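1st attempt posting a full record on here, be nice pls
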Amino acid sequence: MKYVILGILTIVATSIFAQKKEAFNPDQKFSADSVRKWTVEIMDELAAAQPGFYRYTSKARFDHLIDSTLQTISDSLNTLEFYRKLKPLFAQIGCLHTGLRLSEDYEKHIKNTSSLFPLEIFINSQNQVFVTKNHSNQSVPIKSEILTINDRPIDEILNILYNAIPTDGYNRTLKVLLLNYRFSIWYQSMIDLRNTFRLTVKTIEGIRTYTLAGVESKVFPSIDSLESAHKKQLVFEIKNGIGYLTIHSFAKTVINKNNQNFKKFIRKSFDALRQEQVKYLIVDVRHNTGGTDGNAAFLTSHFFNETFRYWEKIELTEYMAKQIKGIYRIFYSKPELKDSTYHWKGSLFTKEFNYYNVAPAKNHFEGKVFLITNGSCMSSCSDFAAILSHHKKAVVVGQECGGGYQGNTSGLMPNEDVHPNMIMTVPLLKYTTAVDHTKNIGRGTPPDYVTDHTVDDWIAKKDVEMELIENLIKKEE
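the predicted structure (as tokens):
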């Protein structure tokens, strides 16, 4: 998530999307006519404010998708049923920052009335699903392959979930990684509310069927543990003549919470690389979901010996651009109309929008760089990876980034209530990264060396990427 100061855009967005609050009733049904009307209104309002709405899906295609969804609404729906209609439409925008979630009251209702599928899973490159951890009261074999859940084929389940999970463009690596960590949560919200689960698996001995009791969410690790639970967000060491730099997050608040200062840490690390004349540097940004743009741009500057462009442009919709007027011109510059789009000129009170041209760091690294990425490299982390890849400043190893190579839509992102009992996140600024706009369209930064994990690798937490890089370095020496 990008960090910016709040202002008029939040106020305007609130007025667009705010809905009248009603008493919470999880069983309330809404007529088909009302649901269809709300669907059109929500998508129209999103298109008016979200500047990347048609970035990957044309208006004609989106209109068809909306019409197709409306045709499936033939009877009254409750909130959860309506939510399951909207999620694939939101995902079709191709923006991981544009979100839709159930209200806190509805989440509590689901938690109190149903339980979670009790197994952790791993999806391999052939889209097979394997059991990796068992929280149930049955002895389901680890590494057995899941064939059906509640008599529904696993391929059908995955297809529904893939279509509901938002990522930038057409990316799949983030979707898979999220399901590897949070399959049970996604199954509950998008497939079925259950307290027992009928499971069919394939084992060495043959096909087996189990009936499993559901479990509480506390048995699963939090998704936040991938980023914020680290004792240190920034880690650096030089070992056997190789520099190892791990950046778990670019978020200023998360880094400061761990009593670290990003810029001081990076300066000190690159000073050490120069003093010890290190030839190889491995930068690990796996599971870095982004954060403060200034930190990402600052790190990027340590791989250049001349000024470079970080962003090409930042855009917003005509409707939002025209709200910058009157007293608010004191805080925000008037967006500039260029080639039929409105370009953001930034604020007098922040440097958050000033990364069109970035000067190189004095202690920039001149050796060979290896960058490790995976599907949960998002937002500003994806910007960082895209710039290094585009300028061939690093050899990228791992999986395609979850965030877009061409940029993303984020910046100011108000959360707004929508009827009934749902909340959506609306990003208001469309960032275009300064890369080749004919390459990797709708994809994240691609690795130069793609790594493929097996279920055994996943269970053993084997660092396939680091092992590959260290072997590559050995061959060069």
